[in-house]
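Sharing a chain and its predicted structure for anyone who wants a worked example. Both blocks are below, sequence first, C-alpha coordinates second.
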Amino acid sequence: MEDHFDMLMGVILPYANFAIFLGLAIYFFRKPAAAAAKKRREQYSKLVAEATAARDAAVAKLDELKKREESLADELASIKAASHESAEQEAFKIVADAERLASHLRAEAGRIAAAEVAKARAELRKEIVDTVTASVKEKLVRELSVDTQLVLARKKIDELKHVGADS
Protein backbone atom coordinates (compact mmCIF):
# COMPACT_ATOMS: atom_id res chain seq x y z
CA MET A 1 0.00 0.00 0.00
CA GLU A 2 2.84 2.15 0.48
CA ASP A 3 3.39 1.88 -3.13
CA HIS A 4 -0.10 2.92 -3.71
CA PHE A 5 0.25 5.77 -1.24
CA ASP A 6 3.43 6.97 -2.88
CA MET A 7 1.81 6.92 -6.20
CA LEU A 8 -1.21 8.75 -4.88
CA MET A 9 0.92 11.35 -3.15
CA GLY A 10 3.57 11.57 -5.83
CA VAL A 11 1.55 11.55 -9.02
CA ILE A 12 -2.17 11.97 -8.52
CA LEU A 13 -2.33 14.45 -5.67
CA PRO A 14 -0.23 17.16 -7.34
CA TYR A 15 -2.43 16.87 -10.43
CA ALA A 16 -5.54 16.92 -8.31
CA ASN A 17 -4.25 19.98 -6.42
CA PHE A 18 -3.46 21.60 -9.74
CA ALA A 19 -6.93 20.77 -11.10
CA ILE A 20 -8.60 22.15 -7.93
CA PHE A 21 -6.40 25.26 -8.10
CA LEU A 22 -7.20 25.64 -11.79
CA GLY A 23 -10.93 25.15 -11.16
CA LEU A 24 -10.93 27.69 -8.34
CA ALA A 25 -8.85 30.15 -10.39
CA ILE A 26 -11.26 29.81 -13.31
CA TYR A 27 -14.23 30.19 -10.98
CA PHE A 28 -12.90 33.29 -9.24
CA PHE A 29 -11.08 34.95 -12.14
CA ARG A 30 -13.54 34.10 -14.92
CA LYS A 31 -15.75 37.20 -14.44
CA PRO A 32 -12.86 39.71 -14.04
CA ALA A 33 -11.01 38.08 -16.94
CA ALA A 34 -14.16 38.15 -19.08
CA ALA A 35 -14.76 41.78 -18.09
CA ALA A 36 -11.12 42.66 -18.88
CA ALA A 37 -11.36 40.84 -22.22
CA LYS A 38 -14.66 42.59 -23.00
CA LYS A 39 -13.15 45.95 -22.04
CA ARG A 40 -10.10 45.22 -24.15
CA ARG A 41 -12.31 44.19 -27.10
CA GLU A 42 -14.37 47.41 -26.71
CA GLN A 43 -11.18 49.49 -26.60
CA TYR A 44 -9.92 47.69 -29.68
CA SER A 45 -13.26 48.23 -31.46
CA LYS A 46 -13.20 51.88 -30.45
CA LEU A 47 -9.63 52.27 -31.73
CA VAL A 48 -10.56 50.55 -34.99
CA ALA A 49 -13.59 52.86 -35.38
CA GLU A 50 -11.44 55.94 -34.63
CA ALA A 51 -8.76 54.75 -37.07
CA THR A 52 -11.40 54.14 -39.73
CA ALA A 53 -12.91 57.59 -39.14
CA ALA A 54 -9.44 59.18 -39.25
CA ARG A 55 -8.64 57.29 -42.46
CA ASP A 56 -11.94 58.37 -44.03
CA ALA A 57 -11.30 61.98 -42.94
CA ALA A 58 -7.76 61.82 -44.37
CA VAL A 59 -9.05 60.40 -47.66
CA ALA A 60 -11.71 63.13 -47.83
CA LYS A 61 -9.09 65.78 -47.05
CA LEU A 62 -6.79 64.31 -49.70
CA ASP A 63 -9.60 64.39 -52.28
CA GLU A 64 -10.41 67.98 -51.28
CA LEU A 65 -6.75 68.98 -51.58
CA LYS A 66 -6.49 67.33 -55.02
CA LYS A 67 -9.58 69.21 -56.20
CA ARG A 68 -8.24 72.43 -54.72
CA GLU A 69 -4.89 71.85 -56.42
CA GLU A 70 -6.65 71.42 -59.76
CA SER A 71 -8.80 74.49 -59.18
CA LEU A 72 -5.72 76.47 -58.13
CA ALA A 73 -3.98 75.53 -61.35
CA ASP A 74 -7.00 76.70 -63.33
CA GLU A 75 -7.29 79.83 -61.20
CA LEU A 76 -3.59 80.56 -61.66
CA ALA A 77 -3.97 80.24 -65.43
CA SER A 78 -6.98 82.57 -65.43
CA ILE A 79 -5.16 85.08 -63.21
CA LYS A 80 -2.17 85.01 -65.56
CA ALA A 81 -4.43 85.56 -68.57
CA ALA A 82 -6.32 88.36 -66.82
CA SER A 83 -3.13 90.07 -65.69
CA HIS A 84 -1.65 89.75 -69.19
CA GLU A 85 -4.80 91.26 -70.70
CA SER A 86 -4.83 93.99 -68.07
CA ALA A 87 -1.18 94.76 -68.76
CA GLU A 88 -1.87 95.01 -72.49
CA GLN A 89 -4.82 97.33 -71.88
CA GLU A 90 -2.70 99.45 -69.54
CA ALA A 91 0.07 99.60 -72.15
CA PHE A 92 -2.40 100.72 -74.82
CA LYS A 93 -3.79 103.31 -72.43
CA ILE A 94 -0.30 104.60 -71.63
CA VAL A 95 0.58 104.82 -75.33
CA ALA A 96 -2.69 106.64 -76.08
CA ASP A 97 -2.10 109.05 -73.19
CA ALA A 98 1.45 109.67 -74.38
CA GLU A 99 0.23 110.35 -77.92
CA ARG A 100 -2.41 112.79 -76.62
CA LEU A 101 0.21 114.52 -74.47
CA ALA A 102 2.65 114.72 -77.40
CA SER A 103 -0.10 116.19 -79.60
CA HIS A 104 -0.98 118.70 -76.90
CA LEU A 105 2.68 119.63 -76.42
CA ARG A 106 3.12 120.10 -80.19
CA ALA A 107 0.05 122.36 -80.34
CA GLU A 108 1.23 124.29 -77.30
CA ALA A 109 4.72 124.68 -78.77
CA GLY A 110 3.18 125.93 -82.04
CA ARG A 111 1.04 128.42 -80.14
CA ILE A 112 4.02 129.63 -78.10
CA ALA A 113 6.17 129.91 -81.25
CA ALA A 114 3.43 131.91 -83.03
CA ALA A 115 3.13 134.21 -80.00
CA GLU A 116 6.90 134.69 -79.93
CA VAL A 117 6.98 135.46 -83.67
CA ALA A 118 4.14 137.99 -83.27
CA LYS A 119 5.93 139.55 -80.31
CA ALA A 120 9.20 139.72 -82.28
CA ARG A 121 7.39 141.33 -85.26
CA ALA A 122 5.78 143.90 -82.99
CA GLU A 123 9.12 144.70 -81.39
CA LEU A 124 10.76 144.90 -84.81
CA ARG A 125 8.07 147.27 -86.10
CA LYS A 126 8.42 149.42 -83.01
CA GLU A 127 12.17 149.48 -83.42
CA ILE A 128 11.82 150.37 -87.12
CA VAL A 129 9.36 153.14 -86.26
CA ASP A 130 11.68 154.46 -83.54
CA THR A 131 14.67 154.30 -85.86
CA VAL A 132 12.83 155.98 -88.72
CA THR A 133 11.51 158.63 -86.34
CA ALA A 134 14.98 159.34 -85.00
CA SER A 135 16.39 159.39 -88.54
CA VAL A 136 13.71 161.76 -89.77
CA LYS A 137 14.24 164.04 -86.79
CA GLU A 138 17.95 164.08 -87.40
CA LYS A 139 17.52 164.85 -91.13
CA LEU A 140 14.98 167.56 -90.40
CA VAL A 141 17.26 169.15 -87.85
CA ARG A 142 20.06 169.33 -90.43
CA GLU A 143 18.05 170.50 -93.45
CA LEU A 144 15.02 172.51 -92.30
CA SER A 145 14.32 175.56 -90.21
CA VAL A 146 13.13 175.14 -86.67
CA ASP A 147 9.50 176.06 -87.37
CA THR A 148 9.27 173.88 -90.44
CA GLN A 149 11.02 171.08 -88.60
CA LEU A 150 8.46 171.14 -85.83
CA VAL A 151 5.48 171.05 -88.21
CA LEU A 152 6.95 168.25 -90.33
CA ALA A 153 8.12 166.29 -87.33
CA ARG A 154 4.69 166.37 -85.76
CA LYS A 155 3.05 165.23 -89.00
CA LYS A 156 5.50 162.35 -89.48
CA ILE A 157 5.28 161.29 -85.87
CA ASP A 158 1.50 161.21 -86.12
CA GLU A 159 1.68 159.20 -89.35
CA LEU A 160 4.17 156.74 -87.88
CA LYS A 161 2.09 156.29 -84.77
CA HIS A 162 -0.90 155.42 -86.96
CA VAL A 163 1.21 152.96 -88.98
CA GLY A 164 2.49 151.31 -85.78
CA ALA A 165 -1.05 151.10 -84.35
CA ASP A 166 -2.56 149.62 -87.57
CA SER A 167 -0.08 146.70 -87.67
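Comments welcome. The longest helix spans residues 2-143.
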